[in-house]
């Protein structure tokens, strides 16, 4: 490791004055992955690299404010060869919908940068740092290690990534270093008011109506320890769901120790789990091949919404029942 915590192997992959890089995102890219990949895109391109950035799905409209987002595209296949393929904030390579296999075949190396403790370590070089509150912190260190200038646009992308990955700096894994890096990014040109405004204050009227529909579906267990939202397919627009962190609404209930959001779509159910430090929700997500952090995890379950809801709630109830009574 280097003094800044960046593996020497990671720096060596990117120190060449030119090359061809693939920046590969996961399904339904969020600001955590887009902000880090777009920052890397600008930094590598400015050093003379040819860069292709994309993934199974395009960037959502709510993140259209990110500098350089037009460079990110939906990829059906890869063309040509690459010196390196880079994935950020992607603990499970299955979330690339097979593109990782094409990337391995077309790339000399795969650099896996992530802070999830359950990362599958699928890269040629795996830089996994669970002590980092956000993958954006790690990418910032990487750019500093490469001597790449942190421009205002890079700063905006990384600040947004850190902002969302830490739940607006609310999660328990936030450290003094998180704020120190955020401060450096603001100094470099990131505007916190702009980022927060674009993330949280650009709703349309219809989005508030959809939010009202969703909040009416919140259910709470008799003891108040578990709250959940079960969303049937088509209940609200998919663009609205992608733009809102809906699981945090049931999590905000004072008595709740685990919150769940279950979204039915295309014959499967996407599950988001949030905890408050009592239950390791990543262990629950592991049962269905998912994962994440102890307080924030997710998985996808084949089948219908009712069955998935019953199964997930049973697992959550068992975990909560094992806790000491408060």
What does the model show?
Strand 4 (84-88), helix 3 and strand 5 form a beta-alpha-beta unit. The protein is an alpha/beta fold and 326 residues long. The termini are far apart. The longest helix is centred in the C-terminal third of the chain and has 17 residues, at 305-321. It has a 6-stranded parallel beta sheet with strand order 3-2-1-4-5-6, with helices on both faces. The radius of gyration is 20 Å and the shape is globular. It contains 12 helices and 12 strands. 37% of the residues lie in helices and 19% in strands.
Largest sheet: 6 strands, parallel
CATH class of the largest domain: Alpha Beta
Spans where pLDDT lies below 50 across 5 or more residues: none
E-strand count: 12
Order of helices and strands: HEHEEEHEEHHHHHEEHHEEHEEH
End-to-end Cα distance: 43 Å
* Average pLDDT figure: 94
Q: Can you give me a brief rundown of this structure?
A:
It contains twelve helices and twelve strands. The protein has 326 residues and is of the alpha/beta class.
Topology at a glance:
Layout: H1 8-14, E1 20-24, H2 31-46, E2 50-55, E3 72-74, E4 84-88, H3 99-106, E5 110-114, E6 125-128, H4 135-146, H5 152-165, H6 176-187, H7 192-200, H8 205-215, E7 219-220, E8 226-231, H9 238-243, H10 248-251, E9 258-265, E10 268-275, H11 281-286, E11 291-293, E12 296-302, H12 305-321
Parallel strand pairs: 1-2, 1-4, 2-3, 4-5, 5-6, 8-9
Antiparallel strand pairs: 7-8, 9-10, 10-12, 11-12
